NCS1 family nucleobase:cation symporter-1
Amino acid sequence: MPNSRKNSSASAADAHARYSPRLTNEDLAPTRHQSWTWYNIFSFWMSDVHSMGGYVVAASFFTLGLASWQVLICLLAGICIVQLCANLVAKPSQMAGVPYAVICRQAFGVFGANIPAVIRGLIAFAWYGIQTWLAANALMLVLLKFFPTLASMTHASWLGLSLLGWCCFSVMWLLQAMVFWHGMNAIKRFIDVAGPAVYVVMVALAGWIVYKIGFDGISFTLSSKSLSAGEQGWQMITATALVVSYFSGPLLNFGDFARYGKNMGEIRRGNRWGLPFNFLLFSVVTVVIVSGTQSLFGKMITDPIETVSMVGNDVAVAIGLLTMIAATIGINIVANFVSPAFDFSNCSPQKISFRTGGMIAAVGSVLLTPWNLFQSPELIHYTLDVLGAFIGPLFGILLADFYLIKRSRVSVDDLFDATPQGRYWYRGGFNPKAIAALLPSVGIGLIISFVPALHEVASFSWFIGAALGGGCYRYLARNEREAGAVKPFAGGIAMQKE
């Protein structure tokens, strides 16, 4: 057995040595360490779910006029869709052991994959900044609790952020960079702790509210406005779609983490516990907290930072907010640091490393002044609509190519072949059919998002984009599917491990 392992490692090293330098580096090459278990995947989703951004999005559904029990149903329905999609998008990356940007070469071409990679990387700019800003707000509240004199630094502002806000934002920015800089093992250890930690705070906050007002004060019929039955049904469908849109970013590049999974069985188990089961508890706690604030404070509070800050004990407030900060750092790293790190590295593997790619996103996020993007429930939904318009088509094309055109097979060696003989060379390294499917799909999604008359369907931009992108590509590449049934792979075929 030792000799077998040595031979396997040697053959893998030889294969990597043959890969084109224009397409590979140590971070992009197929991983030799697929050791993540279901718990690591579970922790990944815990970090995504248990964040201030997730809480704000869930709580904002009350502004749609939905009752508490309706919000709960929407959250669960949406997360079940996310679970299904996560299982689908994980398979190609786990089979090949490569990140999202590399697996996109199968559909877009070895160089054309830079198109979806850059799009996903640019989207991470916005989300990284948004999550950092939310964490900075929590830190600012902690500082003001213990150092009230710092309030003088909150009066003047520059680019929409006060001096104290800039200081807190900078601290959060640096803390996340430090964790990221130590690599994937450090990130894995961090999210294994950050996700579960916020459970304690959320449950404690819900318990404190119930203690203050009693179970009778928790209303599951509470809503911010009165709607007819038909309007309620439509808003519930809208809210369900927005849940999927919120998770569409980490969902698209879930392969960046699924590549490390031992097998698909472990990944599916992690998705099952990390999404519907985990999200059920998160949803119940969120509904209890938001509906309880109406009875306790006389108004419905959808901002978790504001709710925590109203707890009487300063130490409890500090612990709660610091834990939320840790959880938000967790989602920011896994969703908005790791993804662009691989994505931008894919554009120029020999010049942009994993670390450099992540830092590009971190710097770019500041330039977008993200605090101006996420300051109201309406703007939250508008932001999600626009992001969904880009992410949906990419998701649809990726899955249509892998499952319908390539029939769940990946030629790993050809993903790193920059010669015309490579299977994924297409035309000059670009697949015109994938690009032809992408452009109109994104265009239609943006039109839906920006045209006021289409506002009612804007929340479904991710679904519309995924259907258009996948459907168009399936039609344009229909002949390749027929040829793919008989044309053999030149390189090794990645096989699924259950």
Q: What stands out?
A: The chain has 20 helices and four strands.
